[in-house]
Structure formats: C-alpha cells, structure tokens
Design goal:
By secondary structure, this protein is of the alpha/beta class. It is built from 11 helices and 9 strands. The protein starts with a strand and ends in a 16-residue tail after the last helix. The structure holds nicotinamide-adenine-dinucleotide. Nicotinamide-adenine-dinucleotide (NAD) binds next to helix 1. Residues 198-290 form the 3-hydroxyacyl-CoA dehydrogenase C-terminal domain. Residues 17-195 form the 3-hydroxyacyl-CoA dehydrogenase NAD binding domain.
C-alpha cells in the first residue's frame, strides 16, 4: 500500500546530523543532497580510497551546482565543509539519522544494522536505501526494529524528486514522521510505501527493463531498443538506465522482483555473464554501452 502524505504530523525529533554509510553511487549522492540542504553529514566507507572517491564526486556535484547558479560559490564551500569523511563507526554515534547505502546483500546489511543499533542512541532513526530487500528482515537484526525503515532514493539523487519511505510491519510512526520530514527538507517528495518486492517504483520499472534484456538475449540491438523507448517519450532507454543503475545492483533487484513473474526470466543470468567480465555499467566504464 502506498500513501501520498499530505498530513503526516511534524516529528517530535529534530534531525541535525545525518550519517551516510557507503560512499558509492548512492551514498555520495545522498550525502551531497543532505549537505546541500543544510544538514551536518558524516560519510563512512570501509577504506580511505573509497571515501576519497565519494568525496571527489560530492565536490564535483556541489561545485557544478554553483557553476549552474543553483547556489553561490561560497555557499557551495560552506556546504562542503559540513561533511565529515570517515572509515570509523565511532564518528557516527551522535547522528540523529543513519542512511545506509552499502552493498545490496541482506546478511551484510543485517550485520551493519546490528552494529549501529548497539552504537547509536535508541532515539536515532536507522534507514536503508535498499532497492528490494525486506526492511523487516534488516530491522530484525536490531533490538529496536521500530526505528528501522527504508529510505529509497533514486539515481541520480540530486535530480530525482521522489523518495520512497518504506514502512515494515515493525516500523514505528515516529520513525516515519522523521523520515517524511527529512525528505521534505531535502526538497524532495516522500511516498510512504509498505513492504513488498521492489516497493512501488521498481515493481513497475523492472518488468520493463527485464523485457529489454530478454530482447537483447534474443538478439535485438541495444541501441534500437533504447532509441525506440526514447522516441516513445522515456528520458532514457531501459538498457542505458540499467548501465546507470549498475548491473550488479540491478541483478540483485531482478532476483528479488523476478519471483513475481510467472515466467522464468533470462535477465539474472544474462546480467551475471556481463558482471563476471567486469562490466558493471557506467561506474566500471562498460555495461551495455562503452562509457569511456
Ligand atoms: P556502490 O557499489 O556504488 O556503493 C556501495 C559502497 O558501500 C561501496 O563504496 C562499498 O565499499 C561501501 N560499503 C560496503 N560495506 C560497507 C560498510 N560496512 N560500511 C560502509 N561502507 C560500506 O552501490 P550503490 O549503487 O551506491 O548502491 C548502494 C545501495 O543503494 C544498495 O542497497 C542498492 O540496492 C541501493 N540503490 C541503488 C541505486 C542505484 O541506482 N545504484 C538506486 C537506489 C538504491
């Protein structure tokens, strides 16, 4: 069940500091959006190199926003100074909200949530940017599942206005109120949705991308499919979109949502063959297209 929210009560808790876990495609985008909107941010990844990669992307995004006149150059620098970069969970302990954007694997996310649950005050809200995993199962790794919810951003974060706020059967109203309020402060549109494979958007979107991959596996041309979709009015073709999402990320989503389809799909295996060759899409320079 999806609810457009116009009357969610103002939260009693105020969020000032947001911790973001994972400095990859989504984590860097979320951290940039949060700092842009005036939150204090701490961004964590597992090593200095990955943190530096996220930092470079954030600085590029913020400075290009300044070049486009979205904010002044001094304001961009002030926002950048709001972001702390770290590899240590100790720097997250005073965050009011954690947004996790790490690898799409249930057991890894469960380990991280269990650790966060122990380290952070029980008042902090813990959110996952998972595309398709169960928030209830992620929350079950904690002692406070009422403060665990999904906060599903779309790529690229600075451009996409919709954010799904995912409520599991265990999520409390207080956490939902905090998240709806934060999404609004980010200048975005919150959509509260229930648990279910793919939530709302990916449940609609994936069958479309799945059919495109099926056609490629049957011999259709990548560019012909994408050109047709664009002429039809889509901003991007389905295969270009898969490259932007990342084929590895898409594979996990396809596995989860594939269970909804009555017919077995060739998509997970097809994507895996590309992944095995290091073709992860735009981020690795090659997917269905060459990006360099
Ligand atoms: P990514 O591979 O670009 O980045 C993930 C990052 O998390 C990596 O830098 C990795 O080193 C880091 N990481 C792994 N374990 C960590 C830990 N314990 N602590 C801190 N950092 C850790 O992945 P992504 O595309 O940004 O996806 C992240 C999440 O967002 C996934 O759950 C994915 O399903 C979801 N998502 C992705 C998209 C998309 O378009 N790519 C869209 C919506 C949601």
């Amino acid at each position: 069940r999806a609810t457009w929210v116009s009357n969610v009560q103002t939260p009693s808790q105020k969020v000032e500091k947001i911790a973001v876990l994972g400095a990859g495609t989504m984590g860097a985008g979320i951290a940039q959006a949060a700092a842009f909107s005036g939150f204090d941010v701490v961004l964590k990844d597992i090593n200095d190199e990955l943190v530096a990669g996220g930092r470079a992307r954030i600085e590029k995004l913020m400075r290009s926003a300044a070049k486009k006149g979205v904010l002044s150059a001094p304001a961009a620098e002030e926002r950048l100074a709001r972001i702390q970069y770290t590899t240590s969970i100790d720097d997250l302990t005073d965050a009011d909200l954690v947004i996790e954007a790490i690898v799409e694997k249930l057991n890894v996310k469960q380990d991280v949530f269990s650790e966060l649950d122990k380290q952070l005050s029980p008042r902090a809200v813990l959110a996952s940017n998972t595309s398709a995993l169960s928030i209830e199962q992620i929350g079950s790794a904690t002692k406070h599942p009422e403060r665990v919810a999904g906060l599903h951003f779309f790529n690229p974060v600075y451009k996409m206005p919709l954010v799904e706020v995912v409520r599991s059967p265990a999520t409390g109203d207080a956490a939902i109120r905090v998240l709806v309020d934060v999404v609004r402060q980010l200048g975005k549109v919150p959509l509260v949705v229930g648990e279910g494979p793919g939530f709302l958007v990916n449940r609609v979107l994936f069958p479309y991308m799945d059919e495109a991959v099926r056609m490629v596996s049957e011999g259709a041309e990548v560019t012909a499919i994408d050109r047709a979709a664009k002429k039809f009015g889509m901003p991007m073709g389905p295969l270009e979109l898969l490259d932007v999402v990342g084929l590895d990320v898409a594979r996990h989503v396809a596995d989860t949502i594939g269970s909804l389809s009555p017919e077995p799909s060739p998509t997970p295996e097809f994507l895996q063959r590309l992944i095995d060759q290091g073709h992860l899409g735009k981020k690795s320079g090659r997917g269905f297209y060459l990006w360099k």
